[in-house]
Every structure is written in structure tokens, then in C-alpha cells.
Here is the input.
Amino acid sequence: MDTVKVFRHLEYELHCGAKALDGGRFKPTLTVAKDRWPKRPREIDVPLGEHRSEHDAIEAAYSRGVSWINEYGTLPAGGK
Here is the structure.
């Protein structure tokens, strides 16, 4: 079973998850969406790494989400 926790950062919701893999490892998952309309959720890649607990995988997803928001999520509409 996958575990997902929702965090808020600035005007975004980060849905950070941990998916169980073989060998006692966990794969981080991340979906980022604005907390207001239009939400436009985006799945963001998180490096697989060697996450041995759900907590570690969720922390990696959260860290990646905050980085993504700081780099891309705060651009003005239509900006690159």
C-alpha cells in the first residue's frame, strides 16, 4: 500500500508519497498542484535513491517539491 502525505508550501499543495519496492526500499512520488483554481496538478520526478523507510521517501519528495516550486513554480504567468 502506498502512503501519501499532503503538505502546503507557498500557494501549492505537495502530495508526497512512498511506494513500497522489493528489498525493503521505497520509491518517492510527488504531485504538485496550486491550492486554488486552476489546480493543474503535475507529477514531478524524484530520484529513486536508497530510501529504506516511508518517512525518508516522503522527505525526499517534499524536498524535491520545494525545490521545484522555488525554481519553476513562482514564475509569472507565461514566463520561462
Notes: The chain has one domain: 3-73. The mean pLDDT is 88.
